[in-house]
Amino acid sequence: MATLSVTEDCEQLRKAFAGWGTNEGLIISILAHRNAAQIKSIRQTYAQTYGEDLLKDLNKELSNDFERVVLLWTLDPAERDAFLANEATKRWTSSNQVLVEIACTRTSQQLLLAKQAYHARFKRSLEEDVAYHTSGDFRKLLVPLVGTYRYEGEEVNMTLAKSEAKILHEKISEKAYNHEDVIRILATRSKAQINATLNHYKNEFGNDINKDLKTDPKDEFLAILRATVKCLTRPEKYFEKVLRLAINKRGTDEGALTRVVTTRAEIDMKIIKEEYHKRNSVTLDHAIGKDTTGDYEKMLLALIGHGDA
Q: What is the pLDDT of residues 94-108, one digit of tens each?
């Protein structure tokens, strides 16, 4: 991105804040169409030129769901993950899957950067906050999940996949869902290795592991184990479900909608949209358009089209 256009973007944003009332359309036309690296340059140039923090100015000028989607999008991806993870620890309930989502759908490097951003912003580690705010089986699973640095390569050990599929099957059959080996396998193995293990599980024992983890639909620890498996093996299916539950007849969960759109827009939104269309026979654009309004709707739609340009 040429220096000239960064300066121009900063001037335009400054203009959007000037006078009586904010020009939301102008803010959307700039920020929703810039990627993470470009936004980082805009934030730096804005601070150098005006001696102000762009995030603080946006915070001052905007409100409600529109403010949240713009602020989350303007954060660096690692800062955004750190912010969302912190929020999830502070408001933690056993049905909150945000920590699993961040720990299991990011690459090892992305998770590491998020943890460094967490140190910088909160002067504590993500691990200590997760450990402090959770308890019992949830703590047993979540602390190693956020603390891991998985191998990212494609190599797979088939002998290991067979023996660990057997261990998983044994423990699940015994309903020992919190067994240290179940947690060890899910928290430390590479995604490629886990995929091989779970494929073997299905071939050998006839069921998808998540089906065997559904014995008690009300058990929230089982729900978080299923989310862990889905995030590690089929993230697009996990995110489709979060969106489907967020946009429903009983009202919209704007928090979940904003989180998924801002964190996946530059990563796999195209696949999530295909998955959503396939599962709901309606496009995600259409569902969002029906369920949201105004600048919030415009920003979301611009972001989910982000990767299509």
A: 999 999 999 999 999
